[in-house]
Amino acid sequence: MKNNDRLRVLNHPVLGAVKAESIYLNFNGRQIAAMEGDTIASALMANDIKNFRQVNPQAQNRGIYCNIGHCFECRVQIENDVTVRACLTKVYDGMQVSSIIQNK
């Protein structure tokens, strides 16, 4: 069992075993494992990463709230400074993802 597998359902009693390839993405310069079909949010959560962005000056951390794309709390930045919702965006091998620090 890989380190991040403890937070995943790999063999569901009704749906069966997960058949997905392992891939890797980079979050804030750190390489993390993901599975094909993961969203950015599910990959980060599976690696015990819960803080996706920060709102200053209070340094309040933000992460998953609704997990269906309505609240925009899970926003992250991917290549070319594109801001996306982590709960809706699928990962791909070699993806570069970084936290957003807002100066509000």
From TrEMBL:
Transmembrane segments: none annotated. InterPro entries: 2Fe-2S-bd_N, 2Fe-2S_ferredoxin-like_sf. This is Sarcosine oxidase subunit alpha. Pfam families: Fer2_4 (PF13510). It comes from Lysinibacillus macroides. GO terms for molecular function: iron-sulfur cluster binding; oxidoreductase activity. The lineage of its organism: Bacteria, Bacillati, Bacillota, Bacilli, Bacillales. Keywords: Oxidoreductase. It comes from the Bacteria.
